[in-house]
Amino acid sequence: MLGSISYFYGASQVQSEKSEEVLKYWQATLYTSIPSRSKFPRGFLWNVGFDLHLITLWDAKISEDIIAHWLDLINAEGWIPREQILGAEAEAKVSSQFVVQRNNIANPPSLFLAIQHLIKNRQNVEVFLKKIFPRMEIWFKWLQVSQAGKIPTSFYWRGRNSSAEMELIPYTFASGLDDYPRASHPDENERHLDLRCWMAMASGVLVNIAKRIGEDSSTYEKISKDLTANNLLDSLHWDSRNGIFSDYGLHTDDIEIESVISIDRRVYSEPAFGYIGIFGYVSLYPLMLKILDSDSPRLEKMLSDLRKENLLWTKYGIRSLSLKSEFYNTPNTVTDPPHWRGGIWINMNYLIISGLHHYSQVPGPYQNQASNIYTELRKNVVENIFKQYYERGYVFEQYDDMTGTGRGSFPFTGWSALVVNIMAEKY
Predict the structure, then answer these.
(1) Which of 135, 143, 210, 262 is the most buried (most CB within 10 A)?
(2) Which residues, other chains included, contact 414 with Cβ-Cβ below 8 Å and sequence gap of 6+?
(3) What is the largest CA-CA distance in the chain?
(4) What are phi and psi of 57, to 5 degrees?
């Protein structure tokens, strides 16, 4: 991962939602980790938030420098372009459809999680926190306003294409989980569980920082209280019919991509508003980001479902989508293989393992259950990554849920290198 740290210089191509004209962002430098030198030589906002969990344990000063460079990219509104394609090398490796960054598109604020990890593992961090706090505030406020849902304390990712005709389910690139199944028909009434959990976590980090540097934390305490209230989470995202936490939106499972006569989407039954009812990584966010109360019966149900081999559990890690889902391992287009529809991703497994470790340490009726699953899952993930590394010589972007075989981009010593944190039990 240290070898992936790179220095870029250039200007992003950006577009405002108020204009059709593509403009150049300001000329900027970026010192950052990247997922893969050979495949992805550019900065990814949500990836770097994971990478810093390992880099901080090696040299926290490097993490401070990387965080500062990213926060220097915030504009006056509080937006950070999610992909930093700076310079000729970066541009040469990017498909033209992904070059332009649009100012209504967010990305998971995983950098907040990395800063929380930095606070935990670095002494005398207050001077740095004072410097970055104003920019973190404006970034959070931009997320809070620009990604707000119709119902108070709900959120949804902007940027989904409701008129897409060649995608089984319109992509949600902003979430980082590109082809993970969301509502089949994007709509402003959507509620995205993962984004709400990210906002809950970020507000809590702002409370922590404000108290450490002597700033008023009352505003963020109120926001954090609302976003972590389990009863409010239930009212917005608990799908009682399926017994899972879920997105809400306009959806039908009765769709397919027709590629015999033409390449387009066929919808065989009218979509209806309701919970999506899909069990996968998104369903686990209240555990991953430690939102659930330790005595919550929802936690017991989630732990029980997590260990079921006919759902998400494998001997190599937690797969991204349940075996029972209509969309398990289905391609989203005729040219794009499934990514977040079955494969095992180490950044998500890191968060799941971190959540399990948390619930195994705090008092509660499900402490032993969390501890047992934690021990077994940690062993499975570590052993498979090492097996693949010794057999093939690489760390991979993701791993096959049926065989454990590494797949996707390689070498991928971005978030997959978090296996080192998992080994050291440093979350």
Answers:
(1) 143
(2) 1, 4, 33, 34, 35, 36, 40, 47, 50, 51
(3) 65
(4) -70, -25
Tokens 């902003």 correspond to what residue?
174
CA 181 to CA 279: how far, in whole Å? 10
Residue 281 one-letter amino acid: Y
Span 28-70, pLDDT tens digits: 999 999 999 889 999 999 999 999 999 999 999 999 999 999 9
Nearby residues of 387 by Cβ (< 8 Å), 6 or more positions away: 404
Q: What residues are annotated to the active site? A: 178, 397
Kindly give, in sequence order, each residue whose CB lies less than 8 Å from that of residue 188, ignoring residues fewer than 6 positions away.
150, 156
Q: Are 281 and 348 in contact (CB under 8 A)?
A: yes
348-380 tens-digit pLDDT: 999 999 999 999 999 999 999 999 999 999 999
Strand, coil or helix: 418: helix
Q: What tokens appear for 240 in the block?
A: 């009682």
- H/E segment holding residue 60: helix 60-71
Tell me if 403 sits within 8 A of 391, measured CB to CB. Answer: no
Say which residues have a Cβ less than 8 Å from residue 275's Cβ, sequence separation at least 6: 237, 239, 241, 242, 246, 247, 248
Report the distance separating Cα 196 and Cα 149, nearest Å: 10
DSSP 316: T
Asked if residue 181 lies in contact with residue 325, where contact means CB atoms within 8 angstroms, the answer is: yes
Question: Using CA atoms, how far apart are residues 201 and 211, in angstroms rounded to an integer?
Answer: 16
Q: How distant, in Å, are the alpha carbons of 120, 357, 364, 418 from that of 374?
A: 21, 6, 15, 16
State the burial class of residue 16 (Cβ atoms within 10 Å of its Cβ: 0-12, 13-18, 19+): middle
Domain 147-424 classified CATH 3.40.190.290?
Answer: no
| Spatial separation of the C-alpha atoms in residues 66 and 72, rounded to whole Å | 10
Interatomic CA distance for residues 156 and 79, integer angstroms: 16
Q: Are 178 and 340 in contact (CB under 8 A)?
A: yes
Nearest in space to 200 (alpha carbons), one of 244, 162, 239, 245 = 245
Residue for token pair 């970055």: 132
pLDDT over threshold 90, residue 79: yes
